[in-house]
Amino acid sequence: MKLNVLIIGFVIALSSIVNAQTATEILTKAQNQAKVENKNVFLIFHASWCGWCKKMEKNMDDPLVKSYFDANYVKTFMTVQERAEKKNLETPGGDAVNEKLRGKDQGLPFWVILDSTGKVLEDSRVNGENIGGPASEEEVNQLITKLETTSKNEKVNPEKIKEVFILKKK
């Protein structure tokens, strides 16, 4: 009985590794979808342990701004920089793409806005520093500026972005 459980567990683990999409596959799929839908790609590098990553994703899915992000971007994610016990969660090739896009030593989340051909339009750096999951008024204003230059279909509403992204003091 124990052997059967071990074998089943091994097969499930192996199939998840075999079926994991590579970074190249993720980008190709996102770029193709962006081309068809006349959008740009909003690529976020994140990790399971990263609280700011979760906050960024939650903010983008907030009902107040979700339709804006959905209208303008194909949101896609690559998991990188996992701890040893969770390395299996990483996107194969994600670290290499993160490095190529100059995000290796920027911390997480690190995000990049690409056009449908893969050209970098904007990223989460301001003056060489990663704003990651923007939360201060200054960081959110920088995000808004980047969104204004990369929106293709629906104009950004700065007040809504500020309402969702600026961290409220308790």
Notes on the structure:
With 170 residues, this protein is of the alpha+beta class. A hairpin with a 2-residue loop joins β5 (125-126) and β6 (129-130). Mean pLDDT is 92; it is low at 11-18. It contains 7 helices and 6 strands, in the order ααβααβαββββαα. It is globular, with a radius of gyration of 18 Å. The longest helix is centred in the first third of the chain and has 18 residues, at 2-19. It starts with a helix and ends in a 5-residue tail after the last helix. α6 (137-150) packs across α7 (158-165). The strands form 2 sheets. The protein has a 4-stranded mixed β-sheet, with helices on both faces. Strands 5-6 form a two-stranded antiparallel sheet.
User: Helicity level, as a percent range?
Assistant: 40-55%
Q: Specify the number of helices.
A: 7
Count the E strands: 6
Structural class, from secondary structure content?
Answer: alpha+beta
H/E series, N to C? HHEHHEHEEEEHH
Physical arrangement of strands within the biggest beta sheet: 2-1-3-4
Instruction: Output the radius of gyration.
Output: 18 Å
Give the mean pLDDT: 92
What is the 3D shape? globular
Strand content is: 15-25%
Indicate the low-confidence ranges by residue numbers. 11-18
Distance between the amino and carboxyl termini: 53 Å
The largest pleated sheet is described as:
4 strands, mixed
Keywords: Redox-active center, Signal
Protein name: Thioredoxin family protein
Organism: Empedobacter falsenii
Signal peptide: 1-20
Record the SSE blueprint.
Layout: H1 2-19, H2 23-37, E1 40-46, H3 51-60, H4 66-72, E2 73-79, H5 94-100, E3 110-114, E4 120-123, E5 125-126, E6 129-130, H6 137-150, H7 158-165
Parallel strand pairs: 1-2
Antiparallel strand pairs: 1-3, 3-4, 5-6
Helix pairs in contact: 6-7
